[in-house]
Structure formats: C-alpha cells, structure tokens
Design brief:
Elements: H1 2-45, E1 72-73, E2 83-84, E3 103-113, E4 118-125, E5 137-139, E6 150-155, E7 176-181, E8 184-197, E9 224-232, E10 239-247
Parallel strand pairs: 4-5, 6-9
Antiparallel strand pairs: 1-2, 3-4, 3-7, 5-6, 7-8, 8-10, 9-10
Length: 256
C-alpha cells in the first residue's frame, strides 16, 4: 500500500512538473505569437496612427504608477512565479493598470532581441495572470514609454509561461534591442548588466536607473533607457537580473 501511494505521488509530481515546464510554455508562446501577428496586421491597416492598441493609458507617454517592489517572475518548476516583481513607479501613487492583478492583457508593442532570436509582445503592467503568464513582457507602470526620456522598464518570466527572458543573461554590451509600436520603431543598445540584486531594488527602474543595493551599477545622467528585469538564478525567484540599454539617437523610424 505504501509503495502504491509513493508511486502515485511520484506520477502526480512528474505531471505537475511537465505542466509547468512544457505545457505553460506551449500555451504562452502560442498566445504571444498570435498577439504579435495581430498587432502587426493591425499596424499594417493603420500605419502611422498614434496611441496604443487596446490600452487604458498611452504607453508611449508612460503608464500609471503603482507602489511595490520588483515583481516576481515565474521562475521555477514547482510553480514559483518568476520575473521581476510587482509594478513599481518611483515616486508614484497607486492606480489601476487595466486589471485586478496589475496589468492590461492588450499588448501595444513588439520587443525584438536579435541575439536571442526573441520576438514578444509588450503589454502595460506586470500582473502575472493578465500579462506575464500569457508569455508577454510587462511594462512597469509609472516608467517611461518606448523612445521617451526616462526609463522604459520591462519584466518577463525567466522560466515557464513562455519564458521570454530565459536567456537575457547572454546579452552583451552593444547588442541591439528593437521596440516597435503603432507609430514607429525604436532601437536600443545594451550598455550594462547587473547580474544579481535584491527583489526590493526599485532603483533599477528609476527614471535615472541606479541600484540601491549595488551602487556601482547604474547611471548619473538623465537619458532614454530601457531596462529588462527577470529572476535569477534560473528556477528561483531569489534575486533579480537586470539589463540596461540606451536609446540609439535619431528618433523613431516610421513603421511601414
């Protein structure tokens, strides 16, 4: 009898791990691919028009802010949510992001990282259920919009649920990151990587980003920054991995 219970528990555990590691990825990636296709089809019909598709705020001018720490990203095979924590806007009050868990399911931009072969939709907010668990990348409310002065800060899962930021640790200085919206495209170049910091390190998504825990990492001067945040080490949510990039001068390229 004891052996049967042990075997049954083992089978249940294996099925659960398969669900987390395989099925959630399949579902989320399918949703993400469909969302990118829908966005680009919509932009093809309405080239050059301003605004964000389906979003409660205009993401290119920045979202609303919420208090909190760096969001958790869904990160391990037993269901720990990985990525970077809750939506945080330095100096901001709380407000809704379009859903009860801090985000809007409507994507408004497409993020491309050629080195990683990554193409993924970006939605407003960093809610797990409404944004991150769908395989999207989430835009921290209260941070700048694409191409704008300040810090365009994003969160994504490292493991499970599409894991778009699984390999961001491979990014190096000079790597290109492209962000396309309805009104144009913006190019950033990777400048600095912070391998590990606390989930409470909200300084990394400040308008002029600088780690509150590792003061040698960050910037002193205003600019147009892009920040990618996710969990580290893999399959845990103990720390956060940060990648910073700077906008390439020249303004947005018109979308075809």
């Amino acid at each position: 009898m004891g052996a049967e219970v042990f075997v049954t528990c083992g089978v249940v555990l294996v099925l659960f791990v398969l669900h987390q590691m395989w099925w959630t990825n399949e579902q989320a990636r399918a949703q993400a691919v469909e969302q990118v296709r829908d966005l680009e089809r919509e932009w093809g019909r309405s080239p050059g028009s301003a605004g964000a598709a389906g979003s409660a705020v205009s993401p290119e001018s920045g979202g609303s802010s919420e208090s909190g720490g760096l969001p958790e990203s869904s990160g391990d095979s037993v269901g720990e949510s990985a990525g970077v924590g809750t939506s945080v806007g330095p100096g901001g009050g709380s407000s809704g992001g379009g859903s009860s868990d801090g985000g809007s399911s409507a994507a408004y931009a497409v993020l491309r990282i050629p080195r990683l072969g990554l193409t993924v939709p970006v939605a407003d907010g960093v809610g797990k259920r409404s944004v991150l668990d769908r395989g999207f990348v989430g835009h921290y409310p209260g941070t700048a919009g694409p191409g704008r002065a300040g810090n365009f800060a994003l969160a994504g899962h490292r493991n499970t649920h599409g894991e778009p930021f699984r390999y961001v640790n491979r990014l190096r200085k000079g790597d290109v990151i492209d962000v396309r919206t309805r009104s144009g495209s913006y190019t950033y170049r990777v400048d600095l990587v912070l391998p590990q910091t606390s989930p409470r390190d909200v300084g990394v998504i400040a308008p002029v980003p600088r780690s509150l825990f590792k003061r040698s990492y960050g910037y002193d001067d205003p600019g147009s920054y892009l920040t990618l945040t996710t969990c580290t080490p893999e399959f845990t949510s103990t720390y956060r991995l940060i990648v910073w990039a700077k906008l390439v001068p020249g303004g947005p390229r018109a979308t075809a």
